[in-house]
Design a protein that fits this description.
single chain, about 290 residues, alpha/beta, Alpha-Beta Plaits, Rossmann fold, 2 domains, 14 strands, binds S-adenosylmethionine
């Protein structure tokens, strides 16, 4: 059986992106993240068995010091290859989100029906968007408050397709969903079919910039705070009058910066809501 070397450490979620970029640069073949009760994230990065994993650890720790990324419990080990999808299916239990959602790995909707919830059947595989992350949950909770029947929705950074599926299940008429990661688009495609909403959702690989001047009633963007900061004006230009812009994946400092930026750049965006879950924030603007 194939074996993998791994490097394991925990850190604050605000450093997740920098640490992931460092292990990616060092040639990791895959990363597994697990949120901890302490609020930190345990990260395991896998390397080929031919890699000198002790050297990887030393170099990684040095690079993290240079980039001011604090780590705890940096260790190495060997793990036999698993069937990740089977493992995920075994571990993943259906769970509720917000007042209306029931996120489930299989197509069993009996408990969702009992609880009067809307099921979303998901297999995120390697794509982001299992429904367990607070940034996704904040978007799902906002969606359930919006009058979506007959609307047009743009989902930027669709990942597993979870938000596009939710919008379709709440009655949105036409949804466009994009992601720069072709693997995520493939995963989203199979999730749309699994939820039988593929007729109303069009997927494409790429950025929302490719859309030209099209207008949407709702734009969903659960992305990185810096990217949202850069694209704020462009996102606003894709909104119809009275449209809603839902921005998630923001830490406190991002939310403050984006609120300030909308004001100081005189963007025609009015802040309607500033929601928080754990350390994540979600801003809802109206045009
Ligand atoms: C945090 S995940 C969100 C996934 C899902 N929408 C959710 O709410 O759980 C962000 C996704 O955005 C994608 N992404 C990053 N930059 C992007 C860009 N400039 N345009 C479109 N997608 C992007 C990533 O590949 C990733 O799948």
């Amino acid at each position: 059986m194939q074996q993998w070397h791994f490097l394991q450490f925990s850190l604050h979620p605000r450093h997740l992106e920098s640490a992931s970029a460092i292990v990616a640069e060092m040639g990791t073949r895959g990363i597994h993240e697990q949120p901890l009760k302490s609020g930190e994230v345990l990260l395991r990065a896998y390397f080929d068995p031919s890699t000198d994993i002790c050297r990887v650890r030393r170099d990684f720790q040095a690079l993290c010091r240079e980039s001011a990324v604090p780590l705890a419990g940096c260790a190495t080990g060997i793990e036999a290859e698993k069937d990740w999808l089977r493992e995920w299916r075994r571990r993943m239990k259906p769970f509720p989100v917000g007042a209306r959602w029931w996120i489930s790995p299989g197509r069993d909707s009996s408990r969702a029906t009992l609880q009067n919830r809307i099921p979303i059947w998901l297999e995120p595989q390697m794509a982001f968007g299992s429904g367990t992350h607070e940034s996704t949950q904040l978007c799902l909770e906002v969606l359930e408050t919006l009058p979506l029947t007959g609307t047009t929705v743009l989902d930027i950074g669709t990942g597993s397709g979870i938000l596009a599926i939710a919008a379709a299940k709440l009655g949105a008429e036409s949804i466009l969903a994009c992601d720069i990661d072709p693997a995520a688009v493939q995963v989203a495609e199979s999730n749309l079919r699994r939820n039988r909403v593929d007729q109303r959702i069009r997927l494409f690989t790429g950025e929302a910039d490719a859309l030209g001047g099209r207008g949407f009633d709702v734009i969903l963007a659960n992305l990185d705070g810096n990217l949202i900061g850069q694209k704020l004006k462009d996102f606003g230009q894709h909104l119809k009058p009275e449209g809603r812009l839902v921005l998630s994946g923001l830490l406190g400092r991002d939310a403050t910066r984006i609120r300030r930026s909308a004001r100081t750049r005189n963007l025609p965006l009015t802040l309607l809501e500033d929601l928080a879950k754990g350390e994540w924030r979600c801003l809802v603007f109206c045009l």
